[in-house]
Structures are given as C-alpha cells and as structure tokens.
Amino acid sequence: MIRLVLTLDYELFGTGAGDVTRHMLEPTSHLLRIADDHGVPITVMAEVAEILAWKHEPSWDWAVRAVEGQLMAALCAGHDVQLHLHPAWFRARRCGGRWQPDFDEYALPGLPVEQIRQYVAEGAAYLNELGQRVDPQYRCTAFRAGGWLIQPSPDIVSALVEAGISIDSTVFPGGCGRTGRWELDFRGATGRVAPWRADQQDIAAHDPCGPLTEVPIHTRQVPLWAMLTTRRFRYQRRLLRESGCPADAGAQVGRGHRLSKVRPFLPQKLDFCRLSLRELVSIVDRARRSCEKSPDPVPVVAIGHSTEFNDSRTLRLFLEHLRTRRPDVGFARLGDCLP
Ligand SMILES: [Zn+2]
Fold it and tell me: What pairing do the DSSP bridges indicate for beta strands 2-10 and 330-331?
C-alpha cells in the first residue's frame, strides 16, 4: 500500500523573475482548494530565502504578509509547510525593478560549512516561528534543496540535523546531471521507492545508522522518447518565456539549465504539473504494485511547482480517479513520513 505525499515547491523563478500573485499565491490557492475538496493534504515546500530577502525591501511588505498569510492558513486547514532553500536569494538585491539573486551562492553544497549551517538554521527558525503562530506543536522537520543540489552531502546533512530536520526529500532516484559547476548523481538510488536512512557521505545511499531519512521524490525510469511529449515542450517554452532570460552567466544557472550525457533511459518524476492524467495514473499504479508486499504504507512523493501549476483539471481528475478507482491509495504530509 502507498501513501501519496503531494509536495509543492512554493517560489518565484530562480532567475529572480516572476510575480508573487501569479506564480505563488493564485496557483497555490487553486491547488489547496482542489486538495480541500478531496480531503487531501498538500505539503508546501516554502522557499524561505526569498521571503527573508523580501523583508529587506519595504515596498514588498505586502508580499511577505500575503505569503505568510497563505502559509499559516494552509497549516490551519491541515496542510503541511516545510523548508525549501535556494541560497542565491539570501543576498538578493532589488535593482532596476527586478530581483537579482546572488548566483555565486546558487548551490548549497558550494558554500562554506558555516554558511550552510547558518542558512539552514535561519530557514528552519523562520518556519518554526511562523508555524507556531497558528499551531504551537508545529515543527519544521523536512527539507528539499534548491535545484536538487545536495551533494556532496556531509555538511548539509549535519546542518539539517542540527536544525531539527529529520527528513530530506531532494533525491529523485536515477537522476544525474550538472547545473553550472555543480553536479548531482542519484543513480545509486535508481529504482528505489521506499524511504531509506541516508548515508551522511552520500544522501542517495543507504546507511542503517544514518542521521536522517530520505523520502525520495518518486521517479520511474522511462525511455528517452517518453519524455519528449508535446505537453512537456509546452511547459518548457512557457517556463523559458516567464522566467526571464537575461544574458548573464548566473541567469543560465538560475534557469536550471542542465547538461547531461544522452542516456537511453531517464528518471521521470511523479510531477502533477507536468504529467498527463494517463502518465500520473500509470506511474502511481506501478508504485502500488511495487509496494504490494510492504507491511507498512510506503510514502510516495509527488512534486509540483507553484510557478508551473496551471492545469487544475488534470489534478482534479487524478484525485477523483484515485478516490473512486484506487481506494487503497492513502495520503500523507511530508512531515509525518518518518518510518
Ligand atoms: Zn525550488
């Protein structure tokens, strides 16, 4: 049996472009409404570094109040809010009417250990303070790294544990690639569905004594051609248009450009913004089959982005399908996924 964990990365674009209402508040409000209609929890992965940057800009007070209001209302309604970090936002500046993240700090693994600890601690403390305004029991216990950049992992794992975080949900099994000078390699976890105690040296590897639990973003290996769908091309085109494309090198990193060797099979994430209804149903059915014999329900993490959620019909149909045809599929919040 599986428990589906619907996570939403809640953020503007990595380039600093985007509109808080159009790319965060409105899509998240639509998503939460659909989830509420179906009695399903959402885990909002709040990109805290940008919210903290906005606090330095008085003309953005309204944005801070609006996102904080949305996050607190989500918690009150039974959803979850956990930590997502794009460190380039910590030193972002507002220049010429747009945000300019500091791309020298694009990747958490590229930072000195003290800075990693400081940023993770600040992010967790911010969410703890915000969450406890509406629920004294609230704790930030789960994390996802910006751009999936979490390797090398020893310093990051230490920083997470120190900040009271016991779950990471960054790894997408089978993933491999480069963003600028940073690399990710999750091929050691290819095919894994169930969470694992993560090896501090390499979060994609299993160590029964590891200090935190990896609850991976669910993937399946598909042939290269299966990723070349019209729907996916449409999304990529729209993202390129809306994320802004200034010609500096940092922006290329910010757009998440990945250079990877052509491989015959690629990991397809369980992404409720990008996949069609047929793909969503098929990937969930395969996960159900692979977890049939598990004595405990296995958390299966789906991912979406507030910048990409513009097809509420597919999600409605998907949840309706699960409710009526797959009653064995349960739902969970990421913060509740410790084994
Ligand atoms: Zn992100």
Answer: parallel
